[in-house]
């Protein structure tokens, strides 16, 4: 499909908080899987219905996503995961960069005099005169 082709060819992906559980599961699958240790303990109930934990325990390895779908569903504001083609997904926090709007003349086809005006500084105003 077209969506799959676009996603495969995009080398940089940024995923913010997801609201749809199916989409979160899809994003978790994209992160890959890792092996995690699961510990199991035995609990016995005696005649007085008191639970006691035995010293016996079992450890087994299970496969889990590198970034769980719950993490995608519960990300804080302005936090996301960056996917690149060369590294594992990494958590990142985004901030706004406030700038002041200023018009800069980058390319000009108008003829201008070679001597700058007193109020203008040529070094801060790049232009090309043809």
Automatic annotation (TrEMBL):
Superkingdom of origin organism: Bacteria
InterPro entries linked: P-loop_NTPase (IPR027417)
Q: What is this protein called?
A: MFS transporter
Species: Salmonella diarizonae
Lineage runs: Bacteria, Pseudomonadati, Pseudomonadota, Gammaproteobacteria, Enterobacterales
